[in-house]
Predict the structure.
Amino acid sequence: MPADLVLVSELDYAPERPTNTFMEFYSKPLRRLNLPRLPHPQQLGVVALGTYLRQKGIEVQIFDNVLRMPGPRQALFQALDQQPPAVGISTSLLINPESVRCLADWIRERCPRTCLILGGAGAAFIPEMRQFADIVVLGDGEQTALELIQALGRRSSLENIPNLLIRRGDNWLGTPRRSNISVDEIPPPDWDLLATRASRCHGIEASKGCRYNCVFCTYEGRADQRMKSIDLVAAEIRRNHDLYGIDLYRFADANLTSWPEQTEALCEAIISLGIPIRWGCYARLDNFARRPGLAQKMRSAGCVAVYSGIESGSDFILRKMRKGYNVSHLREGMRWLKEENIHAHGNFIIGFPGETRSTVDEMLALIDELALDTVSFFSLAVAPYSDMWDLKASYGLEGSNIRWRHATMDSDEAQSLVDYSTETVCMKMSHPLIGDEHRMVYNYLGNGLSLSQGRECMRAFRDFYRSQCLADTRLGQESLGRIKSYYDLILEDLKTRVKDIQSASPEEVS
């Protein structure tokens, strides 16, 4: 018998020669070494959805890493051959419509009569993705997905189910929106719904939404952060330990430290469990500046790394972004993280209206001063559904997504400054490395490396980049050897959980 719903989770398939500077920084030496593409870490959202539906009596199957790994791909094909009435694709980690097209083609070929459903941020904010679907679920999916699958089983009308876009020929019918269910109603995830979990690190949430409202952000839950009961979060950690042996986490909250007193109470609850865990999270540096002692409490509860969307080193740009802090907050917050030896990552957006070479140099000077552990740079994206999109005229912005211009810069210059910033950090600064906290926690700690080994692995990538700039063959070979030694450790650990690491590209799949 087929499942009531087959769910597919994926991260965008990376092209062989990515144009993104950050992706290329890590992809180029791996191509040189002919190392296999690592499967992406398991996604919390799709497992949480599957758990909610299973508890409501819906039979669910979940398949992950189907673009990267033959085993999960063949298992998906077998499930599709059973002709399930509905197949859902999570687009939470997808921004490339071609990834959705590939998945949709497989589904349509094997079960052409199934209802193909898209959910997640990709389908909500990238209209080009919707062409492959029959139905799009908007917002949090638990309640809507339940009513949708029940209605499909009864062959009843879907038009009274909120939060849907329903295909009607070449047009879409939108149903009314409704509020999301309480975060306390979402059960702890049944991780055994996944046949393979590619990382020892697992996602967990203490909230949904975000307290803040940055002008460039497309996050649907911005300016509306809903906190989960601390007792429920602690109970989930206890349950995960007892059932699955999980001791490494990545808090998926948009900002775990929005209310520092709440974060401290959560840390107290974690400490009281008596279960030694390690974890990373998103956090704003100004929260640490405004709450002395927060970093110490988080470190005592197992925090080893934080990802901070700093975005700029210019007070002028930060004000225009509506970040709600200034450079002095960044200095003070970073001081507390350094004192507790918490790995600090800073992300920066280049090209916001008003950006110039001078403000980029301000940013680089601040990075050097703060001595962040890792940094990443990305060109501005002018995205629909952000407040910036609605205010394009007032910002003097023309264009959209990654192709735009304004009075002080265009997207080509911004990308050049991303490259310039990457080179400056690698060639002129001693401490910051190009990388991120997500890679550190999910890919490195999650595959058996220590924090210091993860940093040394990132340092080897930095040295390979240096070798290319300097045309230094000896440094290039030496850094490739170090990268391979760390990836050998990663692959050895990964093979204890994943059988078929080497993957074929979608184009190679018949």
